[in-house]
Amino acid sequence: AEIHDQKLRRGQGGELHQIAENDTPVLTTAQGGPVADDQNTLRVGARGPALIEDFHFREKIFHFDHERIPERVVHARGYGAHGFFETYESLAAYTRADLFQRPGEKTPAFVRFSTVAGNKGSADLARDVRGFAVKLYTQEGNWDLVGNNIPVFFIQDAIKFPDVIHAAKQEPDRAFPQAQTAHDNFWDFISLTPESMHMVMWVMSDRAIPRSFRFMEGFGVHTFRLINAKDESTFVKFHWKPKLGLQSVAWNEAVKINGADPDFHRRDLWQSIKSGNFPEWELSVQLFDQEFADRFDFDVLDPTKIIPEEILPVKAIGRLVLDRMPDNFFAETEQVAFMTQNVPPGIDFSNDPLLQGRNFSYLDTQLKRLGSTNFTHLPINAPKCPFAHFQQDGHMAMRNPVGRTNYQPNSHGEGPRESPLRGYRHFPAEEQGQKVRLRAESFADHYSQARQFYISQTPPEQRHIAMALTFELSKVETPVIRERMVAHLLNIDETLATTVAEKLGLQTMPKPADAAVPTRQDLPPSPALSIIER
Ligand code: HEM
């Protein structure tokens, strides 16, 4: 009955098309009305004025006018792929997360790689941090591990995030640079933010110009918790290790590639996956307890610090394979919404102040970018496990509760109920303290790990760091910013500092920046502090 009068035909995907005279699908309006002429607007006479009555023209232009959505406020330029995660062995001793219970278990995944600072149309080979955001569609809801290819971050507290990003992105008056770290605002902020020194060393290293996404590591950065069925907590750091190993390009190569093919990283991922050459990463963990954490001079809650792998080796717990490109870039890669707060039962947060802030920011930003509280109705964001809740209505609601009952408890015996046993239980960490705006002294050493990173590099890699710093700072117009940076470098490595200072033509060597770990007495008086002392 559907296929009547030869006007309808099934397409390749089983969908019905209206059929035109020449046997191809009929072009329709979004309302399904068949279109006779898509080349000429309706007008009075062949040379006359257009008529507002032309509903097809108006609908077509209306839709086109609204094609753009806001680009991500950070990580605007990205590229994604589908795949799966396979668990190696049961981690039941550490976590009750369903995806880690059974060896060989496969969990569907979507990954989006990105650059942080550049706009959506910027070039792939910019010197920048790369995002490594993984969405795992587990049987207990989506788990988003929203990481980067560098294991530490610029700042220790989320309240500084708008500042570091404003400083890193294009300057507000001139609207450039669109994708480079090399400018006054960025280096001004960095030179006034000693906690950024460790990350800056990574960003000046070859890590910040990867050969392709397939040769990058990924890091969850923060300390998270794994929680087992007995509600016991183990701290965890997550690492993605590429099966192909780690490879970068040199700066002069990056500059040429950007000029010749600004889509170089996109093209690489597309071509390798389309030709059946599926990139793979191992998920590795560093597991530790509070007693182990207490042995360090630094704080495991501080996102500017790593736990050296020589001290705590990583353990591989599964592999991620990317084997399918999206059918549509916008629908999947652009509309995917990663959120650090998406964790399944068995994975929990630490008190890392950056992570705590992120847990607010990602949900908040999706409303702005995707335009509706119903962004989870988009196929790329919807869980792939059964789900049931009483959320309803809002813009573009695709799913609403069925039937009379849209609340609980209810006496109709309808709809979902909570499950204290299966549901998410937050780890009952004991917390106490005064309400203050203070940073712990255990967050105060900003140079030791920057130095460790620098000396862990081979001589050619160290030369690249010196060259990158020289190039970057030579673009900075304000002399005092250059000097401040050299003053920080003196606390990291003296040879590095003098090499950069000489190449920049600094007349006098600045004094090393104040590296003293402040004690409470050294902190500037603040209302919060005086409350404590009272
Ligand atoms: C986006 C990583 C810190 C706010 C992203 C993305 C990644 C990422 C990978 C891109 C997600 C995608 O591909 O769609 C990180 C890491 C951080 C960090 C590793 C620190 C360790 C922060 C902080 C905030 C923040 C502190 C705010 C307090 C955002 C926002 C987006 C974003 C608003 C845009 C999300 C979207 O529009 O979909 N971040 N980020 N991030 N991040 Fe972060």
Automatic annotation (TrEMBL):
What range of the intact protein is shown? 17 to 550 of 716
- Positions contributing to heme binding: R72, R112, F161, R358, Y362, R369
Question: What Enzyme Commission number does this protein have?
Answer: 1.11.1.6
* Domain Catalase core stretches: 28-416
Cofactors: heme
GO terms for cellular component: cytosol
Q: Where is the active site?
A: H75, N148
Carries keyword Metal-binding? yes
* The species this protein was found in: Ensifer canadensis
State the source organism's domain of life. Answer: Bacteria
Into which family does the record put it?
Belongs to the catalase family. HPII subfamily.
Can you say what this protein is called? Catalase
Q: Name one GO biological process term.
A: response to oxidative stress
Query: What GO molecular-function term can you cite, just one?
Result: heme binding
Sum up the protein's function in the record's words. Answer: Decomposes hydrogen peroxide into water and oxygen; serves to protect cells from the toxic effects of hydrogen peroxide.
The protein's UniProt keywords, in alphabetical order, are: Heme, Hydrogen peroxide, Iron, Metal-binding, Oxidoreductase, Peroxidase
Reactions that this protein is recorded to catalyse: 2 H2O2 = O2 + 2 H2O
